[in-house]
Design goal:
CATH class of the largest domain: Alpha Beta
Distance between the termini: 43 Å
Oligomer: single chain
Shape: elongated
Order of helices and strands: EHEHEEEHEHEHEEEEHEHHEE
Structural class: alpha/beta
Largest sheet: 5 strands, parallel
CATH architecture of the largest domain: 3-Layer(aba) Sandwich
CATH superfamily of the largest domain: Response regulator
Length: 219
């Protein structure tokens, strides 16, 4: 697996490069927004949101526009968690806050790479529920016959709920379905669900079950 490490602090980038290579990853480094956008294709990007020549959020948005399948983990500073949430809204799959343990980062990388390389469902797997039509094979969604464009994570969250219509799913169950781990930022799922509701145009389609998780109601 090939990782693009976007980090302008040379000391940090050197340490992370060494640790990632010891774990078997191929690593390319970029120390600026321009270098990140000019880098060769990769499987996953570790993106520092505080870059010297441009906003990391802009890089995140541009990378996501290029590929819906690219794994992106945003990296932000302690006390700047709002930047990580903004990263999720602009296309990141997850975020970590410095300083972080390498074991934590490794777990998130593995979960994200498992998700992006996992084979899809068999052709013709379609779910119709509550005005939604979800084609799991084609990864398309229609609401009341209106097509809706979703990111990979938004689609996977919706598919997780749609496979069990009417049931309240714990947040941990959805995280396992979508991220293959329950170890993620506490706001990660909530931010993606909020974006999903907005795109569907019918917030009532995804109900919050207080103290548990979410449910897709059966009409």
């Amino acid at each position: 697996m090939r990782i693009l490490l976007v980090e302008n602090d040379r000391r940090i980038s050197a340490a992370m490069d060494s640790r990632l290579r010891r774990r078997g990853y191929q690593v390319e480094q970029a120390s600026s927004a321009a270098a990140a956008l000019a880098a060769a294709p990769c499987d996953l990007v570790l993106l520092n949101l505080h870059l010297p020549d441009g906003a990391g959020l802009g890089v995140c948005r541009a990378l996501r526009e290029r590929s819906a399948e690219l794994g992106i983990i945003a990296v932000t500073e302690r006390g700047e968690e709002r930047d990580g949430i903004a990263g999720l809204r602009t296309g990141a799959d997850d975020y970590v806050v410095k300083p972080f343990a390498m074991d934590e980062l490794q777990a998130r990388i593995e979960a994200l790479l498992r998700r992006t390389t996992r084979q899809g469902p068999p052709p013709g797997d379609i779910i119709d529920v509550g005005g939604l039509r979800i084609d799991l094979s084609g990864r398309t969604v229609h609401v009341d016959a209106r097509p809706v464009s979703l990111t990979r994570k938004e689609f996977d969250i919706l598919a997780s709920l749609a496979r069990r219509p009417g049931l309240a799913l714990p947040r941990e169950r959805i995280m396992l379905d979508v991220w293959q781990t329950t170890w993620s930022g506490r706001h990660t799922l909530a931010v993606h669900v909020a974006a999903l509701r907005a795109k569907l145009g019918r917030p009532e389609l995804i109900q919050t079950v207080r103290g548990l998780g979410y449910r897709l109601p059966v009409e």
